[in-house]
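Give me a protein, keeping tokens residue-aligned:
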Amino acid sequence: MGDDWRGSVALVLASSTGGVGQHVASLARGLTAADCDVLVCGPGATDELFGFAAAGATFVPVEIPASPGPQDAGAIRQLRGALAAGRPDVVHAHGFRAGFVAQLARAGAPLVVTWHNAVLDRKGLRGQAATLVERVVARSATVTLGASDDLVQRAASLGARNARVGAVAAPTLPVPRRTRSAVRAEFRLPAGTPLILSVGRLHPQKRYDLLVEASARWRSLDPAPMVVVAGSGPSYMALAQQASRLHAPFHLLGRRNDVSDLLLGADLAVITSAWEARQLFAQEALESGVPLITTAVGGLPGLVGDAAVLIPPGDVDALDDAVRAMLADPRMRADYAARGPEQAATWPREADTVADVLRAYAEATGR
């Protein structure tokens, strides 16, 4: 069994604004409720965003940035001090960056690492360094949990001793605070104009450049849909410039805390990513009953099943065709809207995730 394990846990994460932080917050709540002592170590901004301390955990700021650099030495010192003071029975790191820093900072406590993301660029010195970090993290962990099958296979190929898929709880969206008409009024949408929504970090991995290019094509539709993307990140200026150059009906909303409202106002959800594990927005869209078109990459096909339209990555023509077909067929939209919540009902919940990590902690500690 192992899900009756009780003890002290240090959850470690690097900079996050999305799914990883949500997952750690869910674990902090669940483990605290299961009578575990929980310490969360990560950048101060993550506690402000995800509320680890409010969930009952002890939070110690450790500034682990998203990319490696000289500042890692300071992060290792900070984490080493936090772990020495907290003396956890097990250290559970989330992602390569946190796993790498935790491996160098821990003093004897067994290490569990959850792999949430893949390394997509393996070229040059940067790619070689990333592969080295992957290998160190894989071989140093007592137990490795992967958010998708391909991550587990990658960890095992690099020498992970005990690697398996880990349960990741589906998000629970708050009840919308506005009506559909109020959300659409924000964007001054005429009646009958489709609203296409995507949510995620503005990063090259998300391939929002394809969505900009496709949205420029949709100007020929009558009525032409409006495309909005909620999120922040390093690709903001490049995407804004591309949309301006192509005269695309594409709008960047910045980071939003009203995704459930935006989904209520949306007619279609789109994901164009080059890779994802258990993409947060895919889950939010299906739970909300919004028809979804997504790339068939990473863990997405297994996550969505037959409840979404799958397209090849990097293919703007496939994206264009899929959106046109969905917008032209109300019955298809209604069918996929009904499939979403049915698929969402099959996903693990917070209690399942907590039970799964407790078993991992039992394996790691030998008790």
